[in-house]
What we know:
The complex is a heterodimer. Chain A is of the alpha/beta class. Chain A contains 1 helix and 11 strands, in the order αβββββββββββ.
Amino acid sequence: MNIGLLFVNLAGLALIGLIVWYFWLYRREGVQVTEVGGFQEATITVKGGYDPDVIVVKKGRPVRLHFNRKESSMCSEMVVFDGIGQSAKLPEGETVTIEFTPEQKGEIPFQCQMGMLRGKVIVEA
Amino acid sequence: MAIPKTRILPPEQIEANAILQSTEHSDVDEETAAHRREYVGLMGKFWFAAAVSIPVMLVAYPELPWFYLPNLFVREVSETLIRGLFILSGLVTLPVMAYSGRQFFTGGWAAFKHHSADMNTLIALGTSAAWIYSSVALLIPGIFPEGTATPFYDVTAVVTALVVLGQALEVRAKGQTSQAIRKLLDLQAKTAHVLRDGNEIEIPVEEVLVGDIVIVRPGDKIPVDGEITEGASSLDESMVTGESMPIDKKVGDEVIGATMNTTGSFKFRATKVGKDTALAQIVKMVQDAMGSKAPIARLVDVVSSIFVPAVMVISILTFLTWINFGPSPALAFAIVTGVTVLIIACPCAVGMAVPMSLVAGVGKGAEHGVLIRNGEALQTASQLKTIVLDKTGTITKGKPELTDVIPAHGFEEKNLLLYAASADWRSEHPLAQAIVHGAQTQGAQLIEPSSFEAVPGHGVETVVDGKKVLVGNSRLMSRNNVDASKIAGEVERLQGEGKTAMYVAVDGSAAGAVAVADTIKEDSIQAVKVIKDMGLEVIMITGDNERTARAIARKVGIERVLAEVLPEDKATEVHMLKKNGKVGMVGDGINDAPALVEANIGFAIGTGTDVAIEAADITLMSGSLKGVAYAIEISKATMRNAKQSLFAAFAYNTLGIPVAAGVLFPFFGLLLSPIIAGAAMAASSITVVTNANRLRFFKARAFAS
């Protein structure tokens, strides 16, 4: 095996490691909500993903998530909170608010209809 | 719209109504417009990419004969010319990536920032890898082994064109899938004729207030929900309830907005406007259901969350395998197969399969007055083993009707009915009312009784036309010393058929018997048959005695009857049945609510304009049992459709990716061109959407005539 080929192989394997780490192993940090008049609020930009995509809230108090979609790709047209039975259409350029009160500690995932874009609300005690 | 200035209205309320209604409508309009823009934009990108692709492809195969057409371009193709043409190809392909393929790069990058990857990532990587490799090969061919420095810009251009075309067609097909909501909203009337200050004025439907008197003429659309105060007509409610026969309506009856008046004229008082109308509630329910997830889709979620990075890993492994073990030129093979793997993988098809079918199926249900609450309800409904039908009001009409008039020897049927009905005229008992109504329908001119006494638990004792007329049970006859033995046999027979039979005596002698019964709805028989044909067991549940219950069950073709079940025990019975498989319970949503909740699927028979029945997983807008049969049929069809798409998507990827990686090469020398991979990828996601669209043409047996 010549040096060039060895290098290519090593680079390939390193790339695989990088992909595994970056997409699967990396733990994202949650974003804290801001308190506005008794509501725990966060604004989420929708563009190729949810930004921020992990939101940390306290249980028992109402949460307001403002989704602002900044792209026309149909993939992100809808946001679905399957666990709490809510969903909303997100027209481009408009802010759509999802409101709920988490009663239990845990995670409330949300995603686009096809499940390609994902985010979650972490409910803390 | 000319609106007289004289009207006095609370402006806030009008505004609120207007906003509620117009947002619903404009949302959908806007969505349609957004889809349209997206489609036009994508098609523009496609045409550009396609236009560039043609010359780039021609250049990519310089051995093709067109180069050598005598005197057309050149007599002899020199190395320099080919190199020049390739450089030109590379340059014109750049704007294809930057314009036509822009969303792949922006989308892929946005996803990347979120530590995720999607279809955009794969296409962006695939097309740019092809372009970069080609450019390096062209500019510094020396770094590559002999024979591998061949550019393939055509892959970048053609794949971009194909995938963009696929996206455009997908946008269009998706628009069709969700047409149901659009159709529902289009049912809404635009204006209403209302009485204000004694004058009739025409106003936009958004401005109709609760309490307004609305005037409806022949052929008019009913603008909002309400109750008839004057006049009568028959209404075509098919667009909302799915019931094809026009329904007769009189004073006091409910009318549903968006339904169509036929030939009568009437006035009604608006009871629900804006977002409270049945139509608005239906739209909301359908939208919610379309945004929900079927449990089967949750399995897919796991796959789609790891799919794209896994494809990237496979692509690298493919590259490494070819470069290490592949035939010469190894690098060229490695690069082409690696790119082909990236391009052929189609996460979209996998992710879209279930939601697309769900949207189409839920919409189709709504068209026939069947409102499915969510994806979970739809999936469960497709797996039901048993359907429990409440008897009264579900299988039957829920109110007694005159069924038999049997005169004793020496009496005429017509007179018997006249006396019986006249005697009952002033009675408020529902059975008495049924006799009166039956006689009136047959054209009898009833006579006001000169004396009337209701004897509780027995019947009525009256004087009609100077004769003493008794209508009631055997106890009433013996109390008055009437010998009823000659008609007792007939009465017993009628009771055996599940009817309520009453003796009639005129001036001390038995005149005959009349019977009333809760009659079955005409279409119950067909509905039960359709449900049974789908392999479900149909069970009737009722508080009635065994004999009455059996008689009705026999008529509609139900073998298993749970009779004499107290209302509070219905839920327990349903619970027991669940041991043998999933149970659907059909009831009225109010009295049967606990049983509906207990069942795996509660079907509530809608009562007019109350749409969102809490206890129900599926609401049937019309009272017909055909809705139940249809709900099960469409659920099964939708799930079948979703599974087909899912299977196709998985099969496509599990076969396509290895073939793209070249597993067939050692055996058959078969290798996939990245361009074919691009076409396959685009086709696979269109196939999924198109398959879902097939549901729009679903023909149900429940509605077959």
